[in-house]
Amino acid sequence: MSQTHTKRKKRRAVAIACIALGAILLLVGSYTVYLYIKADSAIQKMAAPERPSPAPSGTTDIAGGSPEAGAPGTEPPGARKSLTFLLAGIDSRAGSGGTLNTDVLMLATLNTETHTASLLSIPRDLQLKPKTLKSHKANYYYAYFYNQDKETAIANTKAFYSELFDFPIDYMALINFDGLRQLVDAVGGITVDVDMDMKYRDTADGTDIDLKKGVQKLSGKQTLDFVRYRKSNEGTQESSDIARNGRQQQVLTQIVDKLASFKGMTQWGNVLDIMGNNVKTDVPEDELRSWIMNFQQMKPARTTMIPLETRWENPYIVVKEDTLRQALERLRSEAGLPKDDRLQLADVVGVDSSADDSSLE
Asked: How far apart are alpha carbons 168 and 355 in whole angstroms?
């Protein structure tokens, strides 16, 4: 074989390799562009194009008070070392009644300096007593504001809880329960410690809960059953709101850990679709995009679950005033806010004044 022929074969091989590499780079580049377009589409569905303001129709003082101008804690997000959130979950499945009641409600802080977070679950049946609205369970108020004006529902709900607890909330995020099911399946399921046997059936909305006690990996459907379980018609023990809140916090932590393990945009494709279709928030697009692209850096290294002591007093849950005050102070401290001695909790929530702790939930 001549030297010229050998060189020609080598050049052909190099050319073929370059073409193949170019094709691969083109495909990878095209897919990356596709993912970023998908991310933008999802973010535009989730995020607020601009920060909304509460509606002017008598809702600016909906809880019976408002922060003073320039008061500590009223500065914009980014001026403090922490971000504060109101997280809510609604059940809009067929057969659920379409009430838009918030079955999950949490106050949360994220300290961007220490990479720590705190979660306080507000029981869905907690009695709230705002001065300018009727007393209802905590799960009622988002639906109320949505029915008044769906465009300002998130802004008004956030303002309501900020003023009620004198706790400035930067952002609110709302997730559809079916989105939770899809999200858990998208991350490959989660491993949790199921605290009791759970059985409940309801043919009206298709609920069929059947879980055994113990550590196990749950699918999306099973996870939704796990966080929703309250009562049984199949002979298993009923659950308290405190236990439900603990499950919700456990699931949220597991999902965040799973998402943080994603190594690149390719794994975010399906997740972004699910979030875009099932999550609504008032976080501006640019900020939300930055959080998603830097999720591993945003994820807290430690998450603290703050417990509450409550009691069932039909038809409401009432709370131990001291434990709620301590919980709110822990959140304020995490958020870098000064101690608040002005808030009279007994004026805005149903408090348990009994001395007998044996019947606490």
From this structure: 32
pLDDT at residue 295, as a whole number: 78
Q: Give the up-direction half-sphere exposure of residue 245: CA atoms within 13 A in the CB hemisphere.
A: 22
SS3 content of the chain, % helix, strand, coil (to 5): 45, 20, 35
Tell me whether residue 28 is in a domain: no
CA distance 72 to 359: 38
Q: Does residue 11 fall inside a structural domain? A: no
Kindly state the average pLDDT of the residues 44-68: 54
Domain span at residue 154 reads 47-359
The segment with the largest mean pLDDT, out of 31-35, 66-70, 278-282, is 278-282
Dist CA 113 CA 107 (whole Å): 19
Residue 29 lies in a domain: no
Q: Is residue 194 part of a domain?
A: yes
Q: How confident is the model at residue 312 (pLDDT cuts 50, 70, 90)?
A: confident
CATH number for the domain that contains residue 332: 3.40.630.190
Q: Which pLDDT does position 164 carry in this prediction?
A: 94
How many domains, the chain? 1
Q: What is the pTM of this model?
A: 0.78
Single-letter residue type at 146 = Y
CB of 145 within 8 A of CB of 157? yes
CA distances from 346 to 310, 335, 352 (A): 14, 24, 9
CA distance 166 to 155: 16
